[in-house]
C-alpha cells in the first residue's frame, strides 16, 4: 500500500519553528521533568545481541481487527501535527485497528504497510499499520504487534507514548502488561514522568507529533533496538535546524513486544543535523 520511500538526504530540510519544541515535534520522543526542566527522552538500551537477518516478506495472517466499542468505529476527521503531518482522529479514543491486509516489508528498515498515525486519548500520537499491527484493543490499549522488525518499531513508540501520555487507566494497563523491568523501576519512572500528560493537555503547543524517520539498529527474535528521528526544528543555538535522535529497546515476552525500562532509561537522545540513512515514516 505504501510507495517506496528513499532515505533522508544528508542536507536537512527547512526547519520549523522552535515553538513547543520538546513535546511538539515527536511521538516517539517524549519529555521528562528532570531537575525542574523538560528534557527529551527515549530508551537507550544497553543490551547488544547479535543482529539477525532482515525480515522475510510475508502476508499478514493476523485475525480480523477488533476495537473496543467505546466511541464507535471509524474516524471523525483528520488533523495535523506540529510539522503539518497528517494525523487521523479515531472515533474510539483508544484508536482504530486497521484490517491486516498488507505485507511485512522484506527490508528490516522497510516502512510497515498501510502506515497511519492516529491521535488517541486527545494527546498521544501513535502509529498503526495494515501489516504489523496493532491488531486489537485490550483494556483500552492498542496492542498485538507482529514479531518482526516493523512490529518492534511500531510497538516501542506506541508503548512509550501510551504509558506516559494516555489517561491513568490506559497507562496502568501498559505498566502492568507492556513494560519489561522491575516493579520498583517502573513505579519510579512512572511517578516522575506521568505529569507529562497534564503538561501536554494544559498547553496545546506542547502536544506530540509523528516521528520523522526510523532505523532498526538491532533485531533478534527476542530483542530489538530502534532509533527514531524527530524534526527538523530550530532553536537559538541551532538556527539551521536539527533533529532529535533517540532510541528505544524492546524485548519479546509473553507473545508481545515490551518496552525495556531501567533506572536510567528512557533517557536523553542526541541532536543531529541530519537523519540520513533513516527510513521516512511520514510523507
What can you tell me about this protein's structure?
The chain has helices at residues 21-24, 149-165, 168-177, 183-193, 196-202, and strands at 30-34, 37-41, 58-59, 75-80, 86-90, 103-104, 116-119, 125-128, 136-138, 141-143, 179-180, 213-219, 223-235, 238-253, 256-260, 270-272, 279-280. With 283 residues, the protein is of the alpha+beta class. The chain has one domain (21-280). Strands 11, 12, 13, 14, 15, 16 and 17 form a seven-stranded mixed sheet that branches. The protein has a two-stranded antiparallel sheet with strand order 1-2. Helix 2 (149-165) crosses helix 3 (168-177).
Care to give the gist of this entry?
By secondary structure, this protein is α+β, with helices and mostly antiparallel strands. The chain has five helices and 17 strands. The strands form six sheets. Strands 11, 12, 13, 14, 15, 16 and 17 form a seven-stranded mixed sheet that branches. A two-stranded antiparallel sheet has the order 1-2. It has a two-stranded antiparallel sheet with strand order 3-6.
Please give the alpha-carbon distance between the first and last residues: 13 Å
Main sheet record? 7 strands, mixed
Q: Mean pLDDT score, rounded?
A: 80
Instruction: Report helical residue fraction.
Output: 10-25%
The helix tally amounts to 5
Model regions low in confidence, pLDDT < 50 over at least 5 residues: 1-69
Radius of gyration: 17 Å
Shape: globular
List the helices and strands and how they pair.
Elements: H1 21-24, E1 30-34, E2 37-41, E3 58-59, E4 75-80, E5 86-90, E6 103-104, E7 116-119, E8 125-128, E9 136-138, E10 141-143, H2 149-165, H3 168-177, E11 179-180, H4 183-193, H5 196-202, E12 213-219, E13 223-235, E14 238-253, E15 256-260, E16 270-272, E17 279-280
Parallel strand pairs: 11-15
Antiparallel strand pairs: 1-2, 3-6, 4-5, 7-8, 9-10, 12-13, 12-17, 13-14, 14-15, 14-16
